[in-house]
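#lab-general

N.A. 3:47 PM
ok so I finally got the sequence cleaned up, no stray characters, all 166 residues accounted for. can someone with queue access submit it? mine expired

B.Y. 3:52 PM
send it over

N.A. 3:53 PM
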Amino acid sequence: MIYLALFFLKIIENALATLRIIVIANGKKLFGAFLNFLMSLSWIFSTSLVLVDIQSDPFKIFVYSFGTFLGSYLGSLLEEKLAIGKNMVIAITDPEKDTLVEKIKEQNYPVIQLEGTTLDYSYQVLFITTTRKRKQKLIHLIRRIDKKASLIIDNAISITNDMPYQ
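B.Y. 4:20 PM
back already:
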């Protein structure tokens, strides 16, 4: 019974720790602090369980470590499903694909379009903000219209106003 409690406490602690890091990186500080509170409770209980009679029961170390491993992995999966935060997608596309901007706008993605040239080529650069949950849908939309588009995707930590000049 102690092994099971230890195992699940470490899973909870490390899943929360993984999620906490990602939540704070996306600017959700209060939620991150709450997760840290829960994480510390789990840590206190699990550490007290593993330290009692550790010399006579070294299997606790393995259970503790394996719970840590599994908790970290499950935290990553959980964060991926929650998809907290926003992304900035920069699409470098063929200017001949003029329907792309209209299709992006039709799907209610904020987009800024710039024209660019090199010595021998013209292109358009699109700056598009999206939630992480809608990111894949946006990528598929762009690829459907311009298969050769270059995409740069990054976390957008602070977006104060998606389209300030509309």
